Amino acid sequence: MSSSAVAVNGHGNSPSTNGGPIKVAIIDQQRVFVDALVFRLENEPGIQVVSTADAADRAVSSIDSRPGVVILDAELPQGRTFDVAADVRRQWDGARILFLTRQPGDAFIEQALRIKAEGIVSRDEPLVQLVQAIRSAAAGEPTFSRAVADRLEFDSTGREFRLRVVPPMKGLTDRQLEILRHLARGDSVKAVARKLFLSPKSVDNQKFRIMSKIGVRDKVALALFAVREGLITP
């Protein structure tokens, strides 16, 4: 059974389309779904699909035209979804991010809120609902599937959405979450340092801070925590 996506007033910004078509990039590993979505969007006035990619590697660099909305598969292999999201934020400041997911855990929702994604929408939504979510995201209106919206509350002081329950990795910084994802995939401290342009000593120090915060003692337990909380996929 699907639940309708709902637009939620909160941190909405002005539309990014400037009167032109909404340029959409799709990064999703499910080719049949992508083909169906592209076919639907090609018949939608005011929407233009500028790129599709089916893998995380080089997904952002393969997009030629600056997108207004990026539809991003929440289940990319090895939890690389947020690596791609970070690339999107770095390369296209102001691009809206709309996550497509099945059953998002609290850890995933927490990370999506941290990067101020414009939406988290279930794959079970009818395509007409997804099209509306794209239009809402382009206008800066947060859009969540009902199952996600029911787990959120709006903080009027900070003007942001947050989970009603505190996730286990709430005390980790964005950088620590990024390091955690890399370490949990099996990357060495030196490999993480190269990828994130940090010193090995800095990564090693962060590793022990992370382990202390989440209460684990070795890298195996670190990886199990990351899988259990939905930070990476096994």
Main features:
single chain, 234 residues, alpha/beta, Rossmann fold, Arc Repressor Mutant, subunit A, 2 domains, two-stranded antiparallel sheet
Describe this structure in words.
With 234 residues, the protein is an alpha/beta fold. The protein contains nine helices and nine strands. Mean pLDDT is 84; it is low at 9-17.
Strand content: 15-25%
Examine the secondary-structure arrangement and name the CATH architecture of the largest domain: 3-Layer(aba) Sandwich
What is the CATH top level name of the largest domain?
A: Alpha Beta
> What topology, given as strand order, has the largest sheet?
1-7-6-5-4-2-3
Count of alpha and pi helical runs: 9
Largest sheet: 7 strands, mixed
Question: Can you identify the CATH superfamily of the largest domain?
Answer: Response regulator
What oligomeric state is this?
single chain
Number of strands: 9
What would a concise description of this structure say?
This protein is an alpha/beta fold. The protein has nine helices and nine strands.
